[in-house]
Design goal:
Length: about 120
């Protein structure tokens, strides 16, 4: 349904998705963008790229749904005494807390590996 000048708003249905051309309530793009399943191994690594030199600890590959990830993130942030966020199925925790997070995830029964440098 893509055209040269796609409709961005309709008085009938409101905002229109620029990708699929459907009303945002019926958009199929969001439903297709499911989080890829990992191999069941949680990988913990430190990253500072694109963050103006600030270090964050990234945890990827956790086999949990969105709500369980948010609960786990809340617990880990409380343990580390810092902030964080869930982005694209990965947990980001401010600062370098790999050892603390590694031990906690091990206690909770996850298969964990330290990745990166």
């Amino acid at each position: 349904m893509r055209t040269e000048n796609p409709t961005v708003y309709s008085t009938e249905s409101g905002r229109i998705c620029p990708q699929c051309g459907r009303p945002q309530a019926d958009c199929t793009c969001k439903k297709q963008a499911a989080r890829p399943q990992g191999d069941g191994i949680a990988r913990i690594f430190r990253d500072a790229k694109g963050r103006k030199g600030k270090t964050v600890t990234l945890i990827t590959g956790l086999p949990l749904d969105e709500e369980a990830l948010r609960k786990l993130l809340s617990d880990l942030k409380r343990m580390c005494g810092t902030g964080g966020a869930v982005k694209d199925g990965a947990l980001e925790i401010q600062g370098d807390h790999r050892d603390v997070i590694f031990d906690e995830l091990k206690k909770r029964g996850f298969a964990v590996k330290k990745a990166g440098g």
